Amino acid sequence: MSKLYELQATTMKGENKPLSEYEGDVLLIVNTASKCGFTPQYADLQKLHEQYAGQGLRVLGFPSNQFGEQEPGTDSDVQSFCQINYGVTFPLYAKSDVRDENANPVFRYLTEQAPFQGFDTSEPSGNMLHAFLSEKLPHWLIDDSIKWNFTKFLVDRKGNVVGRFESNVEPLAMAGEIEALLGASN
Fold this sequence. Notes:
It contains 5 helices and 6 strands, in the order E-E-E-H-E-H-H-H-E-E-H. It is α+β, with helices and mostly antiparallel strands. Strands 4-3-5-6 form a 4-stranded mixed β-sheet, sandwiched between helices. It has a two-stranded antiparallel ribbon with strand order 1-2. The longest helix is centred in the last third of the chain and has 13 residues. It is globular, with a radius of gyration of 15 Å. Belongs to the glutathione peroxidase family.
């Protein structure tokens, strides 16, 4: 059994939910924020959820206020914002840190399994992120931790982390990888 399934995450209602409940599903795990330039990705995450949930995709959102304080509200505020503005129906978990010493264990595990490979600087938002971090937080570029909001991890049905997609990668661009995992035999 994958170590991922040994972990738990706190729901927005304060309940601990074992990730083993998702065993056998393909997971797309994302750290999110409501006041970020990448926030519109909620719409495409919801589209992926609607399109593939029946085939076993589970999108899981983990709000964090660690990047530019772009998630300042309460869990209830986050839930309302996501439902009202983007129609989000996929699970959102309690706000938590996703990097540094207080990082959510889910994200410590994910970043251990899928190290940072850099930004695609040929793409404008990837270039912008790289330049911003190089200037303001250069030490963040030398480790494998989360770099910004909307870093996405793709996990196969057996709990293996098979892909890391940085903030600037649009969720719909991952559809091919998701379809391949959904079509793979259990």
